[in-house]
Amino acid sequence: MLAAASLVVVLAGLGDLEAVAERLEHADTGLVALAAGFEALSFAGYVALTRIVFQPAAPRISWTASLDITLAGVVATRIVTAGGAGGIALTVWALRAAGLDARTVATRLAGFFVVLYGVYFIALGLVGAGLATGLFGREAPTSLAVAGFVIGALVVVLALSARLVPRDLERRVRRAAMAGGRPTRWAARLVPAPAVARDGVALALRIVLHRPVAVAVAVVWWGFDLAVLWSTLDMFGAPPASSVLVLCYFLGQLAQVIPVPGGIGPVEGGTIAALAACHVPVSQAVVAVLAYKAIATWLPAAPGALAYLRLRRTVAAWRATA
Question: Closest by alpha carbon to 22, among 286, 248, 296?
């Protein structure tokens, strides 16, 4: 339902075809190469974070393997969204072949996403707070800014609260399951999830403390991908203030949890609606966001497919020498 509503926003913007055509006619196409370069730099940040998090537990994760996992996994995530399920499945497959057991894979993945999305939600909360209080100006509606602050702060608090999960929780629940019925046995099967979340947050904090470059490369991933959107907005008109752009970008990215092919509809509709609420012309928002989507999703598709084929050969070699 939300996907359909978001797609309606896109189509509504396309309804003013004259304004859209005028934007396309006067587009600064020279910015396309700049946007593509920004996206390449964004992927470089993701590759570096992949190696930082996984290589200490799996020495086989070389820079080449990190590149292949990143390209294949991120493209899979963007083509089939659903909270990144496609990319997660591919990464788990590669890490298991590299010699990691299931629990280590889960913990390392949790730590990876805590670092990566920690930057995301902290930035969303800070920018939302700055716009809501007027510190960053008044270009965004207060309700939108407050929503950004609340979402960012709430997710950060929930993530940190995972540290409060008791270390003997699994032992307690399994002991109860031995004497309990079916509901207790189901609880015993589910109880590793909060423990993995706790260990993942602890791992992320250790990585940030001992290798703060991990935060920098996470900023590179988000920052340069955001720069692609800035480039396409500049391509078809004047981009909004930086704080507004950050808020609209991050709010739009929240729609990635909706499982649709290519993410077409939710992310675009959410980003366009947020930009329009911040007084960006709808015609400009529509063509800019769709151009951003083309560069960020479909431009890496061919390298991602090649990376997947190479990763398959790498995984086969790992399994052959296991």
Answer: 286
pLDDT for the residue 152: 95
Tokens of 315: 């995984």
Q: Single out the residue of 243, 255, 297, 295 nearest to residue 10, CA to CA.
A: 255
Q: Which of 281, 294, 279 minimizes the C-alpha distance to 244? A: 279
CB-based contact 266:260 (threshold 8 Å): yes
3-state secondary structure of 81: coil
Taking the C-alpha atoms of residue 287 and residue 283, their distance in angstroms, rounded to an integer, is: 6
Tokens read off for 167: 């270390």
Amino acid at the residue 251: L
Q: Residues with Cβ < 8 Å from 55, sequence gap 6 or more?
A: 61, 62, 66
Q: Could you tell me the two tokens for 61? A: 């994760």
Q: Residue 237: left (phi > 0), alpha (psi -120 to 50), or beta?
A: left
How far apart are the C-alpha atoms of 67 and 26, rounded to whole Å?
37
pLDDT in tens, 16-44: 555 555 555 555 667 888 999 999 999 99
Give the confidence band of 63 by pLDDT, cuts at 50, 70, 90.
Answer: very high
7, 269 in Cβ contact below 8 A? yes
Helix (H, G, I), strand (E, B) or coil at 20: helix
> Span 153-161, mean pLDDT?
94
DSSP 8-state symbol, 261:
B
* Interior angle at CA 111, CA 148 and CA 70, nearest 5: 90
Share of the chain above pLDDT 70, in %: 77
Could you tell me which residues come within 8 angstroms of residue 162 by beta carbon, excluding any fewer than 6 positions away? 194, 197, 198, 200, 201
Model confidence at 7, pLDDT cuts 50, 70, 90, reads very low
